[in-house]
Amino acid sequence: MSQSREELFEEVRQLRLRVAELETQLAAQSTPAVDRITDGFLVIDRDWKIVYLNHYLETVIDRPRIDLIGKNVWQEYPQLVDSDIYHNYHEAMLTGRPIHFEAFEQVFHRWWEIHVYPDATGLSIFIKNIDERKQIETEQQALLAELTALQARYAVADQVSHQVLYEWNVKADQILWGANTERILGYPGPVMPQTLDQWLVLVHPDDRPLTRRTIEQSLAECSCLRAEYRVRHDQGHYVWISDQCQLLLHPDGSVDRAVGAIVDITDRKQAEQTLREQEELFRQITETIQEVFFICAADYSQMFYISPSYESIWGRSCESLYQNPAAWLDSIHPQDRNRVVVALEQQAQADSFSQEYRIIRPDGSIRWIFSRLSFIRNQSGELYRIAGIAEDITQRRQTQNALNELAEFNQHLIDSIQEGVIVYGLDFRYLVWNRAMEQMSGLRASTVLGKRPLEVFPFLEETGIYQLLLRSLAGETITAPDIYFHIPETGKSGWTSAKFSPFRDAKGNIIGVIGIIHDITHRKQVEQVLEHRHAFERLLAQLSAEFINLPLNDIDAHLQQGLQTIATFAQADWGWIYLYTNHETVATKIYEWVAPNITSPLENLSSLSMTTFAWSIEKMRQLQPLFVADIAALPPEAEAERASARAIGATSFLAVPLTYQGNLIGSLGFHTFGRSMSWSPEDINLFMMVGTIFAGAILRKQNELTNQTVLQAIPDLMIRYDRKGVYLDMVNPGRIRLLKQKDECIGKSLREIFPPDLAEERLYYIEKAFETNTMQIYEYEIEVAGEILHEEARIIVSGTDDVLCMVRDIGDRKRAEQALQQQAERYKLITEITQNIHQSLELSQILDTTVTGIRQLLQTDRVIFYSFKDDCSGVVMAESVSPEWPSLLGQTLFDSCSTIQQCFALHKQTGHMIADIHCTEPAPPCGALLQNLQVKSNLVAPVWQGEFLRGVLMAQQCAESRQWQPSDIDLLKQLANQVAIAIYQSDLYQRLQSANQELQRLASLDGLTQVANRRHLDEYLAWQWQQLQRDGTPLSLILCDVDAFKLYNDHYGHQAGDDCLKQIAQAIAQTVKRPSDLVARYGGEEFAAVLPNTNLEGARHVALNIQTQIAQLHIPHACSPVSDYITLSMGIASVTPTTTTTPKMLIAKADQALYAAKSQGRNAYCINND
Fold first, then answer.
1. Residues in domain GGDEF (predicted)?
2. Which residue in 382, 1085, 1086, 1097 is the catalytic one?
3. Where are the domains of the chain?
4. pTM, whole model, 2 decimals?
5. Fewer beta carbons within 10 Å, N or C terminal of the chain?
């Protein structure tokens, strides 16, 4: 992979050289045109030598250009050193970014507007004289100041008659007010403040401190007071006032009184704010016209303004456009003109217009233009002005064409990536749409590229993804939430996760956004299935809990509500329960639920002949579910079912048998109308369990109704007591087991027969029956012959002084209720364990949660998870064990995964149960191992991931053997499946973390030399600056430049040049090796060494060591003017960071020292002591 990346970088470098060559040729061809323009044009190479200057500059400096070409610009004009021009030229050369600025230079004493464009060879500089504009701006500022003064004077004069006069007795702190207080401030004279502190309470809190200080200063200096501040009006708002007063002095020289006037200046303050806003608007417009800016009539019949840049770009005079405003349309290339005109007509109803097109200049040359128009409308909404900006983008289009070849190569690489890759440009249009995205969305790249996100996918706005893209374009790396997508044009839909990062060029500038899109549809489908199943399980547990201890009178309502809940959950249109009666010949509908929108005739289906529907009834007798997804697919023997379904408009149905203790009593079913439904086997199994719950409730209802009837006539046991609890008679004991026989009880008290607590309880209810004259019913437990029995007693007054007590055995009901309760608790605990598993991506936490929950659920002595690695070695990774048994955590029990498969005969969808190690015949292969571990019963469920056995869940009973139930192994297998999913998710998360770390590492390294890149250098330098600024310690920087490296490349070839740079980088890195030091590639053949906590002497010592290391490399350089081997020139600078200095200053100092070292003959270092 390393070789492939170097080849890619080499190809990019070649393409960049080709672009530079094309730009050089273009500059040579355009030289005559440059000489004709009225602005200056200057080209400087990277050694600050003048390569070219046009005729305009030749006339300005009054020297022949031949005398200056090849000369160092700073040596020719040393007055410019340390000027804004000097620093901005150096910053553009160092950063590689264009710089635009205005400067007044001291050589010819003129104002210039300067545009600096760096490239691989040096700087291209466009210079425009702006003396006249600066003079106009100065005059405008003077006029504006005069206008402001005039406005202030006029405002004061206008308000003289609207002032409030006052007199303040300073010594007595007493204020007397004139007559206009209510008109200006809203307060009548009597309620005006009488003291200074009371007056300051009315002053705006933001103005109050300054107002107090101004008054105190005026008093201290005995000077007139002049102040402007805000005062709260009686109506609650604040008004601006001007407060001016004259101080009257006491004969002793102290201030005695102050006489003044207050004037409302609120209108003037608002006018000043409006004037500032207009000045800001004017400033923005002035800055905009650096490009071609124009304003014209809506029909292009009149040109109101055109900026001077029109002449340099169009090659025509501004006056010609004023005379013929439509001339700009005539200059558009014939192949583009119709497109621009049509676009103007189509977008005239909008507020803006933008287009790229070509123009033909008078000299026949062609330039590319990007125009943006704004349509200005009057109050009636009619278009009456057009304002626009036009930009020359010729150079950008030429560069873009040169890079098309690189883009095509990159596209092949991107298309080979299996994940979706998209790239947005700065204008937020799609630049890259790889093959994986085509497959995911069904949209070809040709239909997407060039468009904006919301044009293709409107749902990005409502899902919030578009806002995340904007944040990423601003510099953030964003991990987007999972979203669901549906593309109507292609029918594609699914789930994706995405990560968006700023897309930067080689210089670290943001040029767009890159997104990596993962198709997680399959994972989401699995999660949805699991969530659906968990919801069903929770619903099942809820139903089980609801039917426990449910009174007889509530059973019908709960069954009806339960049917509606299950039918709604199953997304059915009709749910029903049929009860089989008359020796299974008739099926009677006892409950049903119909969706509100269903109008099918269902009244005739209240009673069905089981003979007529023999095919479906036979399925029920076999205790099997019956699922028909399409009625038309029914077999010929199910004609009655097909006809009945078509008669009511049903399209699919599901029926499950209602069974209780293996006996069929009816069926539970669901129908859909007008649509097919698909229920998974897992759903159908859960519906079977619902059927069991419903069957139990129905039978319980029937049994209790029957029992009620029987108990009213012949109860299981009837006892007559007198009011004191003495046995009077006993009748028909039935199945009730008695503590004593009838002849032993008659005539004796309850306290003599029953245990004390039970005797007192029954006496209590006997007395309560007399008091309330109502039947008393209660349940209790009693021990008979060592067995705990559950009984219910009903006590009713039967005479003036005796009661009848009816007793029946409710053991079966209690056992059923207990079973249902246990079932509900198991489902509840399963749900909790599953939710806990999916709430964490940390594997250890997932496994600890699982084994703890299983041991709690199964009440075992030990539960372990035995994990296998890729090499099949294993270890006990998680364990939950009772304190009395030894821990196996971290131990290796099996030498490979195949061994454990053989020991427990494991394969997919199976588990393994051993009830008693000592009684299992034949002895299991793992018997000896389990005996050594003191295990008596063992339960195993495998955790598969594809074809690979990731591990096993193992429940162990150590104290005594245990007869495992099928539900135990089902539970363990179910949780094993959940663990497999959770492990898979955890693995994905770990791989993602590793990938992100690797990407971060690569992002901070230079691809060729494997030292830090420029971006990491800038970040590290800024970080160290903050640290050392706080500590007050020095920071040194060494800039290294390979001497005559271009000659080396030309002579030995670029491949040898790359190898040379690698050796130099490693040599410097071996020398600069403190943990806090940093070596980075600063430019093409330039390197930088950051030395924190190092002074100039220490930095000089490091530079000497670097020279020694480079010399020991003995890299031949036959073309070097200073040595037969590769040498370095170095610039050294050191500063102690402060709040007033910046890292750029340190870089500039080191760069000046490097320049000095190269000027002194290279193969040397210089120290900047300034």
1. 1033-1170
2. 1085
3. 30-129, 160-264, 289-396, 403-519, 527-707, 718-817, 840-989, 1004-1168
4. 0.33
5. N
